[in-house]
Structure formats: structure tokens, C-alpha cells
Input
Amino acid sequence: MLRRAVLVALCIGLGLAWGSSSAQISEGSKLVVYTYESFVAWGPAKFIKTEFEKQHPGIEVEFVATGPSRAMFARLVNETISGGTPADLFLGEVNDVPRAKKFGLFMPLKPEEIPNLRSVPKDLLLDPDLTIVPYEHGFITLVYDSTKLKPEELPKTFEDLTKPQYQKKLIVQNALTSSVGQSFLFWTIYNYGEGKYLDYWRRLLPSILTIQPGWSAAYKLFTKGEAPMVVSFSTDECFDARYKPLLLNSQGYRTIFGASVIKGTDNPKLAREFINFLLSPEVQEKLPDTEVMFPVNSQAQLPDKWRTCAVIPPSPVMIPLDVVSENADRWLDEWARLVVTGR
Amino acid sequence: VNMRRWGGEQLLLALPVLFLVVFFYGPIANLLREGLTKDGAFSLEFLWAVLTDDYFRHVILFTLWQALLSTLASIALGLPLAFILTHYDFPLKRIVRALTIVPFVLPAITVALGFVLLFGRNGYLNQFLMHLFGLSEPPLPIMYSLTGIVLAHAFYNAPIITRTVHAAWERLDPRYEESARALGASRFFVFKDITLPMILPGLLSGAALVFIFCFLSFPIVLSVGGGRFSTIEVEIYTRVVTRLDPQFVNYKIGAALALVGLVLSLAVTYLYLRLQGSLALQTEQLRPRPTAPLFAGVRDLLRPAKLLVWLYVLISVILFVGPVAAIVVDSLREETAEGARWTLRWYSYIFTPNYEALVGDSPLRAIVNSLIFGLGATAIAVPLGLIFAYVIARLRLDRSSCRRRRQGVQSRRSLVDTLLMAPLATSSIVLAFALLRAFNAPPLRLVGTATAVIIAHAVIIFPFIVRALVPILESLDVRLTEMARSLGAGRFRALRDIELPLVATGLIAGAVFAFALSLGEMSATLMLARPGLSTMPVAVYRFLSQHSLGAPSAMSVVMIAVSAIAFILLERWGERALRF
Output
């Protein structure tokens, strides 16, 4: 009896497995977009999918977001070099572009191919080849929980942050796996320079409660009250009034997210239309409330409350991409060695 | 006679061997080869770099060190429970025993979540202690440290120690101890000289298995420990998966590290299999061990020994039940403008058939997918595992008739076993990465299909099915089969009517356990599946990037419930057949 039941269950399992795998997805009519998890979890992915599919009948948009931005980028690289990727588009952070160029992943675009690009300020177009088209931008800063820290208790500079009173008060992201973590590392390098940034991190380590794999995981611990400060974005107060930006050295590190067309996509025209749609005011106006980032389209209206809650740091900083391109691998390696061994 | 039967069995054995070669050895060898070549030619440069560089030495030593501490912690927490299960009776004992296996199949992401809720700086335990003693800082710095990693590993693996020791202890004939006591030996000496040596093989084999799992553990280190801790697996992940460079230096270093890791874990696997082999030689039990009620009146409660038992129960309830309870509570809470309140909305959310961009499908579909993949992988791995275990067991029985050669055969067999059990010694991240590359190129272009996920799961659960079946098949009385054959039954008929019915319980136990393992698998699924093919743990992972912990907690509760039900049913069907 029992034996028969198990046999039947196994046969059903085999049948189901076979059935579900033979129902293969047909390509071509599908636009596969690789992106970071928060774009899907918080961002406008659902709205974009619905609207774009409505405008292009018969087309299906599929967002693949199995990890933070850098992990998705790595997935793309791994697939490309081992036989090809199903992705048509990639949404990611601009600091990964130099690396993408070395692998020849993205297709260069011409400004006239993306009509909505006309409304985007030129200073946001960091890549002359236009392999990445920016759709949102913001500033990496620290964010603090105003129910836990009073304004007079806050650190004002990077140096303040190393004081004993901030022991285990900060959550940061891993620069190896998270683009936010990478930006924070670059920010310290911007301030302390090649020679001294490792020394700064050595002094900073006691203030760090934990280095989490991605922004989502870090922010989760922050909102769960594990530590009163986290590396995040200057616009977080718009999302929750308790969480206020904390501008070290009056700075914020620029972060720009953009869309790229994958070389070898079977539908470059549709991919460009998707990017153009991403830059349209109707999507751009969704970004503040969902991504909690600034839209790039100057025609897009910001929500009213953003006039007060969205902070633009007095001095936005950023290491030029060609410098990043030359040094990023070494910086990441040195940093990883320091945080793991403490030496 | 032997020669003829052997020929047929070799043919049969080709099936699982072919499966392993195509879906395991081939892809893994391809990956490892990268660590041993430079510009297409054989080179030890990367292996040498990994073995001599201070940083990698730190990583390798830390991997071994945390695995050792985690094994000791698992023994410290698992052994007392084995004692309690063997010596005491209490209500719902069968269910408790069945549930001890649940932690083992939980995905790391769920455990990490439970640990933050319970042991975090702002977790229930620290909050409680701060209230109790009026402290301003959390007193227990458990999370984000080696302690956290070790405790999380113990949460996972102590049940393995409990089960292996409990199994050995229960089979230990009480008359040995009774005679020793009657002859005047003290309790201590009875334990040291009789009980301990008899349960030691079980304990050591369990410990070796735990060591392998902790050695290979990867998501726990990443999230419970955080970026300040790196193990071999974490290093492989960051180098091979996230830090690829155009010169492939990181890739080659990652592959060299994978080679070092595999050699180390295979060595421990060999040890484990040797110990496992010696277990099967134990004497058959003649009389069941007597048990006493756990709760025997108030006066009994105050005996020092009993106080220790209760202290242990308290600690283990906090450690094992706590994180699960914290997840259950979180799945029923909702933050609103007026404060937190009780709700069932997370459950209705995960059971809706509506599309959810985050999961790439409806959450309900993820639940269905999990069940399909689990059944599919089990359906592939069980027959293959059965063939495999059958041949291993026969091979041994045929040869062990010559007692003097047993030792030699044993060690050679363990060596073959070790190679064949290699999927056990390979972390899911290395396997997933190797499969990603294999499945992304012809002739096996399977990435993103359900087949890819099911095959990966089948490879992962295969060794567990073999381990569950070998001891049972070995204890089969060959004479029964031979009698059937001599009475005219064909080979197949003897298998169907004699051998299969005899191993049915073990087969079911192995199948259910393998199914539960497949339910909990995340790393490989995440890498090989596309959004529409999300499973429950993948959905938990995705939901975790949402603002609220409600949805991931609710999904975790469903997972815990499914595996708990499976194990309770299994207990009814005689789960004692389930061995590690």
C-alpha cells in the first residue's frame, strides 16, 4: 500500500517535472531586463511592465533581479562568457560601466535613438559612447534614525565617525557585492586618497556593526533598529520621516543608475524603445516615490514634499570613471584584505 | 554465479554513474581545471598563490577554525538531547523527535532572519535582558560575530549529532551497562568504559558530517557573520561570481580555492564514510532500553541532574524554537501608522495567484514550483540512489564473507565511496556555478528551465538518499534473495518481491528527507532559475528586499510547516530508518 503510494507520488513528480520543463518560454517576443532587486521590490518595475506591455501588444517584459546590482552584473558577465545571456537590457550603476567596457557587454547608442534624452542634463551623461543611458540619480550619504540619535550627537565629518561613541553604530554594505558599498568605499578614497584610505578604514572598523551583502539587507537591519546609522541615500527622509540624511564633510557621493542595451540582443529596436519609455515623464515621475531617487528628465515633476525632504548635498563628489576603471580592482582587493584580516 | 550477476549490476550502475559524470564530475572538473591552467597550459601558479598568500591562508584557516568550533558547539547542544531522547519519556516525544530534523532543511536566509529577530542587538533576547537589568546597551553581542556564525551552524547541525548518537545509543544493549553496574563499576566508569565507546562511532560520524556542512556553509557566514568574515566558499563566491575581471585572474583564483576546499572536504568525507562503515558492524540490540518519565514530580525536579536537564531544555528551546517562533510572530504582525498590530494579510498575500514582479510570478506559483521541483528531483534521485546503494551494498557483502580481508576492503570501498559521494563534499554555490556554465553552452543548454533546477536538486540530494539506503541494504539477508532465485524467481522478480519491500521504509524515509532538502535549497536555485521558476526559499529571499518582514516571514512559516508535516508523517512510518 505504502509502496504503491510512494511509487505513484514519484511518477506524478516525474510527470510534472517533465511537463513543466517542456513548457519552454519562447524568446523574441520577450524583453528580458536584468536589474537590481530593489528596483523590483520597491521600484516601478510592475508599473513599467504593465504600461510597456500595453503599448507593445504581444511583447512580454521580464525583470530578472536575483541579487543586488553588482551580483546581477556578475551574472551577466558569467553568462556572456560561457555561451550567451538571455538578457536584452541591463539596469545598473554607472561605476560598473568601465568594467562592462572591458568585457564589451553593452551596445553604444546614438543620442537621436533615444528622443527623450533631449530633456536629460548633459552632466549626467558620463559615458561619451553612451553605452549607459542614465534614468535616475542620487547621492550616497549616511542616514540616521532620528528616534535614536539627537542632532547634537551626530558625526559631522568622516573623522568624527571613528570616535569611540559611535562604536557599532553604523551598518555598511560590502563593496565587493553592492554598488552602494562600492560607492561608499570610493567616497572614502576621494577624501583620504590612495595613501591613507586604508588607514582610515582601519580606524573606522570599530564603528561598523556589520558589513552586509547588499543595500536591502543593510537597510532591513537599520529599520529593525540594529544600528542607528546606515549608508544609504540623501532622499530617504521622503520615504520615512524618521530616517534623515547625515552629510559627512557636507558631501554626498554621486550615484547614477542607467540602462544599457546588451550586445547581441535579438531586439535592439525594442530595447531602445524601452529605454526611451524609461526616460518618459510618466515613468520618471514614478521614480521619486518608488525608487526614492531623483529622475533625470528635467520635464518630470517632483512630488511637493520632495522640496523639503529630498536633500541635495552642498558638495556632491565623485571619482571620475577613468580613474575608477584603472584602480577599482586593486582598491576592492586591498579593502577586502583589510576588513577580513583587520590588517 | 558472482561473475554473471556482477555483469548485470555493472550495467545498472552505469545509470547513476552516467548521471553523476554528466551533471556533476564533468561540470566540476571544468571549473577546477581553470585553477590549474594558465594560457591554456598546465600551471600551478594560482594554486601556489592561494596556498602561500597570507590572506588566503587566513581565509583557509578561518574556514577550518569556524567549522571546528561549530562542530564542537553542535556536539555540546546535540548530545544532551540525544541523552534525553534515549533515557526519558515525555508527551509528544515522537513529534519532538520528528521535528528535530526541521532546522536542517531550512534555507540559511530564513535562519539568518530568525537570528536577527531573536539575537540581534534590537532582538527579543537583548531587549528582554536590557529591560530586566535596566541596561542601555545590548548585553549579548551574538550577531555579526564568530559567535553568531557558530550558533547558527549549531542550530542547523546539532540535530544531526542528536540523531546519529540517539540511533547508536538506542541500539546499545542495556545489559552491558547493567552487568558492569552489578559488578560494582561506578556510573562514571560505566559511561566512560562502556557507553561512550559504544556511541563514539555514531558521535564521530555525525561530527564529521557536521564539520563538512559547516566547512561548506556560505550564506550564514555572509549574512549572520557579515563582510568581516570570509571563508573559502565566500571567497569563491565573491571571486568567481561577483568579481570577474577580463583577465580571469579572480576566476582562476576562485577555481584554485575550490580545489583546495574540495580536497579538504573530501578528506573529511572519507573519514565520515569510514566511521559510517564501522557503525554497521555494531551488535544487534536484544532488549529495548528502559526509559524514565522526564517529569516525575516536584521533588525529582530539584535533583541536580534533573536541574541540568531542565537548564538544557531551556537553552535549547531558546536556540531552536526561538528563531522559528520569532519568524512566526513576525509573519502575523503589521506595522501601521497607529503602531504594530496582529494580521493575517501576509498569508493572504503569499497565497494570491496575482503576479508579483518581485517573485517574477505569483507567490502561490513559487509554492507550487517548490513542490514540483521537489517531487521531480526526488523522482530522479531515488531510483538512481537506490541502484547505486544496492550495488555498493552487494559489492561489500560479496567480499566481506572473507573476514580477514574486511579491513582492506573497507578502506578501499571508502575511497570509492568518497569519490562517489563527492556531491556531499561540494558546496551548493560551487555546484551551481559549475552547472550554470555547463548549462549555458551546448549540448546542455538548460539554464533558466525547470529541468536545470530539478537536475541540480537531484545532484544535491542524491548522496543523502544513498546514505539512507546503504545501511539498510547491507543488513538485508542475502539468503532471502538467493532462496527466491533458487525457487525460480528472476532477478527482477526477486528485486520487486523480496528486496524492495524490505527496504521500503528506508526508501520512503530517504525520499521524504530528500524532498525536504530540495524544498530548502536556495543557492543553486537562485543562480539557475528564472523569475517564473521561483521556489519558496527564493521567494523568501526576494521578499526580504521589501520593506516589511511580513511576507518573507509568512513564506518561511509555510516552508517550515511543509517540512514539519513531512517529518511528522515520516515518524509515523518509522523514520528511524532515516540515518545520516
Q: What stands out?
A: The radius of gyration of chain A is 22 Å. The CA atoms of residues 2 and 97 of chain A lie 59 Å apart. Chain A touches chain B through 76 residues (CB under 8 Å). DSSP finds twelve helices and eleven strands in chain A.
